[in-house]
Write a structure and sequence with these properties.
This protein has about 270 residues and is of the alpha+beta class. The chain has helices spanning about 30-40, 75-85, 125-135, 155-160, 165-170, 210-220; strands at about 5-10, 20-25, 45-55, 55-60, 65-70, 95-100, 100-110, 110-115, 125, 140-145, 150, 175-180, 190-195, 200-205, 225-230, 235-245, 245-250, 255-260. It starts with a strand and ends in an 11-residue tail after the last strand. It has an 18-stranded mixed sheet that branches.
Length: about 270
């Protein structure tokens, strides 16, 4: 039987904005090479694969080139599909077992909230190479579990920067989060996220980056609950709330495409 696949725009309330993710709810485990091939075919920043198991779902995320340990927007998209397609009752929570432990999604009205681990800055990073790669001055820089986080002077700098992707790719991290205090009304901070080393030049809206951004801006603004804007060309809104060593990420999602992958996973020949 062909495998159903759904494309969802996450962290937005309208189609063709936010961050697109593909979602496959599988009947059982499949070859990871097949999942990677599907993610490469979809050519989105993330494709999510879910397998039902007792008490929830096993969830994995793939960029077009690698499997990753944590992804926010594709988790939001996965939860959206589970409720929209009837895999979960309307009032049930979505529980995902992942490389980053148990992740839980709940729904209230049209907003989904993700319960994720905080990934704060763990140590300082040398700002010189980061500033050179970004082409702008860097106020502060640090390393999180996954990424480099760099603060720049203003929202205008975040929005207008044109990084050198060759230099970015050489930075030893999953990606580079660039952030500044927001000037736009209604937002506390803004960001962009670049990850060419894992096949994503610029990610439109990055939930996992906000697991670092939320504690960073808590330390600067003193607020545990904030509204963030990721200033990519598509743009997206992420509501964040710090609760101990967890970050609650809130957003909306919209289904934009439904289709089928022809043939079963076991029938697809994966190139060596």
């Amino acid at each position: 039987m062909p495998q159903r696949i759904v494309q969802v725009d996450a962290f937005t309330d309208r189609p063709f904005a936010g961050n697109p993710a593909a979602v496959c709810v599988l009947p059982g485990p499949v070859d990871p090479a097949w999942m990677q091939a599907v993610a490469a075919e979809m050519n989105l920043s993330e494709t999510a694969f879910l397998v039902p198991e007792e008490g929830g779902f096993h969830l994995r995320w793939f960029t077009p080139t690698v499997e990753v340990d944590l992804c926010g927007h594709a988790t939001l998209a996965s939860a959206h599909v589970l409720w929209e397609d009837g895999h979960l009752a309307p009032g049930a929570s979505a529980q995902f077992r992942t490389r980053s432990g148990l992740l839980i999604a709940t729904r209230e009205g049209d907003r989904i909230t993700l319960d994720f681990p905080a990934t704060p800055v763990e140590r300082d990073a040398e700002p010189g190479p980061i500033a050179e790669a970004l082409g702008v001055p860097v106020v502060a820089a640090g390393m999180t579990r996954f990424d480099v986080l760099a603060e720049v002077e203003s929202e205008a700098v975040v929005r207008s920067m044109k990084p050198n992707f060759g230099l970015l790719e050489a930075i030893p991290a999953r990606g580079l989060i660039v952030t500044a205090r927001a000037d736009s009304p209604g937002f506390d901070f803004v960001s962009r996220f670049f990850a060419p080393s894992v096949g994503v030049r610029e990610d439109p809206v990055t939930g996992s980056a906000h697991c670092a951004l939320a504690p960073y801006w808590l330390g600067k603004l003193g607020r545990a609950e904030m509204v963030a804007y990721q200033a990519s060309s598509r743009g997206g809104v992420v509501r964040v709330r710090i609760e101990g060593d967890r970050v609650k990420l809130g957003g909306q999602a919209v289904t934009v495409l439904r289709g089928e992958l022809v043939g079963e996973a076991s029938e697809v020949e994966i190139p060596s």
